């Protein structure tokens, strides 16, 4: 896959932007929905965008972040960690001595796409808890329409297995392979022809092919969707090792706040400043740690390949050597679904043991492939995340809008403006030119170790093209 850098992913990450309203935390009354408005984040390369409407228009009541923390304390595991979504961490992996029998019991085989393989892995290790398989039609319809499973539990996006096969039918047991390796078996209990335009309109806010996920649903996914229970056989082999929720949880301190930082691009100085400062946010308790948890599965076509991103994270982890950070990699396929994806990310990180989610301006957003216009409003994702934060038992963390200044280094954008400080920025175009041309990239913008990895990748791409 070619190495490409998008203007949006790298440009203006240090420039000031309009501040969102100050945090307001609300938890539900007997009939209420949760709400929490938060301030924005200025790292467009690490945090993305979104839109959606509330599934519940009930009234809300205000209360403090301490009340949400009290709810979280009631749902701690015996180890003092955040309870998984639905209070059960799923593990679908079959014991080694039983795997051949499961394989022998399958009557059909389907080779998984990269996206399918990510879904299979997260199902098997519990990243999608409480799901124990691909959604059946009833759960699919419910999630599409209401962002909830038929049980009433919140879930952001449907998780389904797709196919063009006319032969696979309910009752069949299908072996799922990926790159020739048997990774799981699924017992089909539901197969249907989905209303894809409706799915896209509800989940992505549009049915236009200008949206990358609508293109994926329309052009990559098969004619039919299938649901059924899954048995895990072997996790996909990846160049970046993906720790399971149980493995990540084993590294977390008991009875402490755990912040999740989601990204899908290399981490530059501004991004690092954001999650380090988030550890001292007003609704974060002393002793908190941050899980830096990048997605390394398929994203947009013009994003940097996962293996390159992984290399940048590894060198930064070594360079930072910060005991308040935990690092892991998520085998998740981005949908760029804005608000719905924010909910999905919060659920996944809850399953990995996180209590807080750092969410910023344009979380998981995208632009039209024709007009370049944003599909979602700047604060749509924050608003939907806030609407559901208390019900999920996850707090959203106020993210700072920061800028780099000649006089004081990194400060908040409002301080830079009030004091008339000189802010510096580096455009995406200029950054790419400097990478390819060997120019000195300022250390206030990017870590030297990260730049070296990106330059090596650029060189590999150029050599391959020649």
Automatic annotation (TrEMBL):
InterPro entries in UniProt: ATP-Sase_PUA-like_dom, PUA-like_sf, Rossmann-like_a/b/a_fold, Sulfurylase_cat_dom, Sulphate_adenylyltransferase
Record pathway: Sulfur metabolism; hydrogen sulfide biosynthesis; sulfite from sulfate: step 1/3
Known EC number: 2.7.7.4
Annotated ranges, domain Sulphate adenylyltransferase catalytic: 243-456
All copies of domain ATP-sulfurylase PUA-like, residue ranges: 83-234
Pfam families: ATP-sulfurylase, PUA_2
Keywords carried by this UniProt record: ATP-binding, Nucleotide-binding, Nucleotidyltransferase, Transferase
Family membership: Belongs to the sulfate adenylyltransferase family.
NCBIfam families tied to this protein: sopT (TIGR00339)
Protein name (database record): sulfate adenylyltransferase
Organism: Tetradesmus obliquus (Green alga)
Lineage summary: Eukaryota, Viridiplantae, Chlorophyta, core chlorophytes, Chlorophyceae
């Amino acid at each position: 896959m070619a190495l490409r850098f998008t203007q949006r992913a790298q440009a203006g990450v240090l420039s000031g932007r309009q501040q969102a309203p100050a945090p307001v935390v609300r938890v539900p009354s007997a009939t209420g929905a949760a709400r929490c408005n938060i301030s924005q984040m200025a790292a467009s390369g690490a945090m993305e965008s979104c839109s959606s409407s509330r599934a519940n228009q009930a009234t809300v009541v205000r209360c403090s972040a301490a009340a949400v923390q009290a709810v979280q304390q009631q749902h701690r595991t015996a180890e003092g960690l955040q309870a998984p979504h639905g209070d059960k961490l799923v593990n679908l992996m079959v014991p080694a001595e039983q795997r051949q029998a499961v394989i022998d019991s399958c009557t059909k085989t389907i080779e998984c796409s990269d996206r399918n393989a990510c879904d299979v892995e997260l199902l098997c290790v519990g990243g999608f808890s409480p799901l124990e398989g691909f959604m059946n039609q009833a759960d699919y319809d419910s999630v599409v329409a209401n962002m909830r499973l038929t049980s009433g539990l919140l879930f952001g996006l449907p998780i389904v297995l797709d196919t063009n096969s006319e032969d696979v039918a309910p009752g069949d047991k299908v072996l799922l392979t990926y790159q020739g390796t048997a990774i799981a078996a699924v017992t089909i209990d539901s197969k249907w022809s989905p209303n894809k335009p409706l799915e896209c309109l509800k989940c992505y806010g549009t049915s236009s092919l200008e949206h990358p996920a609508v293109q994926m649903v329309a052009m990559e996914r098969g004619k039919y969707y299938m649901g059924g229970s899954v048995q895990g056989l072997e996790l996909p082999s990846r160049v970046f090792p993906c720790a399971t929720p149980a493995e990540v949880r084993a590294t977390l301190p008991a009875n402490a706040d755990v912040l999740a930082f989601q990204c899908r691009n290399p981490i530059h100085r501004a991004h690092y400043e954001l999650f380090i400062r988030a550890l001292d946010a007003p609704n974060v308790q002393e002793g908190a740690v941050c899980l830096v948890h990048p997605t390394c599965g398929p994203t947009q076509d013009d994003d940097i390949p996962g293996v390159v991103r992984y290399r940048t994270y590894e060198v930064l982890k070594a360079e930072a050597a910060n005991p308040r950070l935990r690092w892991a990699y998520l085998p998740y396929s981005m949908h760029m679904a804005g608000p719905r994806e924010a909910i999905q990310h919060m659920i996944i990180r809850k399953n990995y043991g996180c209590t807080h989610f750092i969410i910023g301006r344009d979380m998981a957003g995208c632009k039209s492939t024709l007009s370049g216009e944003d599909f979602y409003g700047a604060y749509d994702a924050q608003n939907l995340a806030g609407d559901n934060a208390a019900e999920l038992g996850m707090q959203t963390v106020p993210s700072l809008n920061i800028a780099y200044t000649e006089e004081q280094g990194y400060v908040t954008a409002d301080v830079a403006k009030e004091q008339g400080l000189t802010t510096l920025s580096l455009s995406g175009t200029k950054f790419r030119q400097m990478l390819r041309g060997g120019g000195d990239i300022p250390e206030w913008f990017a870590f030297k170790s990260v730049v070296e990895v990106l330059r090596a990748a650029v060189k590999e791409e150029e050599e391959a093209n020649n």
